[in-house]
């Protein structure tokens, strides 16, 4: 009797588990917010990550049972610190702490081996939208208006809640002054989203 009950319970668990595993992805529209940790690589900048924030919206579009795409639009405030080497390289008076505002547009490929975990990878384009922030006191913009990056990370899907962590690395040179040194962005994103 106990063996039959155990077999029946095991069979029931397998059926329920397989039904969850075969669950199709759905179309979702959602909102999200979180923290950014940023740094710009280059001898003119401090070699430390500084904190900022981000908020935005996302859409999840299924491409079968395990794949999907997730375009997003994110407003991000990036805080950066220049180092004492900046004035040695460029001979300008500079701001030591700079706040930049970006509109970031990632286009991520989602791979979901099960309904609860999604691996994400894709390109991200950042547009510098705060035109009033100048790194140099002489009024010339020091940073490129566009930042092209690759991002990858992990997202946990708990019902309609989304908890994510990502790493992004810049692919283009942000130095808009000259070619004396290359500046590339690095950032970590952590946050929470909610699918509507």
- Which range does the strand content fall in? over 45%
What is the average of the pLDDT values?
Answer: 78
In DSSP terms (H or I, runs of 4 or more residues), the helix count works out at: 2
Cα distance, first to last residue?
47 Å
- Find the structural class using helix and strand composition: mainly beta
Write out the strand line-up for the largest beta sheet, numbering strands in chain order: 1-2-3-4-5-6-7-8
Approximate helicity band: 10-25%
Low-confidence parts: 16-22
What does the secondary structure layout of this molecule look like, with pairings?
Layout: H1 2-21, E1 28-41, E2 50-62, E3 67-81, H2 85-90, E4 97-114, E5 117-128, E6 146-158, E7 161-170, E8 184-195
Antiparallel strand pairs: 1-2, 1-8, 2-3, 3-4, 4-5, 5-6, 6-7, 7-8
Please give a handful of descriptors for the protein shown.
single chain, 196 residues
Could you give a quick summary of the protein structure above?
The chain is mostly beta strands and 196 residues long. The chain has helices at residues 2-21, 85-90; strands spanning 28-41, 50-62, 67-81, 97-114, 117-128, 146-158, 161-170, 184-195. Strands 1-2-3-4-5-6-7-8 form an eight-stranded antiparallel barrel.
Describe the structure.
- By secondary structure, this protein is mainly β.
- Helix content is 13%, strand content 55%.
- The protein contains two helices and eight strands, in the order αβββαβββββ.
- It has an eight-stranded antiparallel beta barrel.
- A hairpin with an 8-residue loop joins strand 1 and strand 2 (50-62).
- The longest helix has 20 residues, at 2-21.
């Amino acid at each position: 009797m106990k063996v039959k009950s155990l077999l029946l319970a095991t069979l029931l668990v397998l059926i329920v588990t397989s039904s969850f595993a075969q669950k199709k992805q759905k179309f979702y529209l959602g909102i999200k917010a979180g923290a950014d940790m940023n740094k710009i690589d280059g001898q003119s900048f401090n070699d430390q990550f500084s904190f900022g924030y981000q908020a935005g919206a996302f859409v999840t579009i299924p491409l079968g049972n395990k794949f999907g795409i997730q375009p997003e639009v994110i407003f991000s405030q990036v805080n950066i610190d220049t180092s004492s080497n900046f004035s040695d390289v460029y001979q300008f008076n500079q701001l030591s702490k700079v706040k930049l505002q970006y509109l970031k547009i990632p286009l991520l490929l989602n791979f979901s081996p099960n309904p609860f975990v999604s691996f994400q990878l894709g390109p991200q384009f950042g547009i510098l939208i705060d035109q009033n922030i100048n790194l140099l006191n002489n009024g010339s913009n020091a940073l490129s208006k566009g930042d092209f990056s690759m991002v990858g990370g992990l997202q946990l899907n708990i019902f309609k809640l989304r908890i994510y962590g990502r790493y992004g690395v810049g692919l283009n040179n942000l130095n808009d002054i000259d070619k004396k040194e290359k500046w590339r962005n690095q950032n970590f994103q952590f946050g929470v989203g909610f699918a509507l």
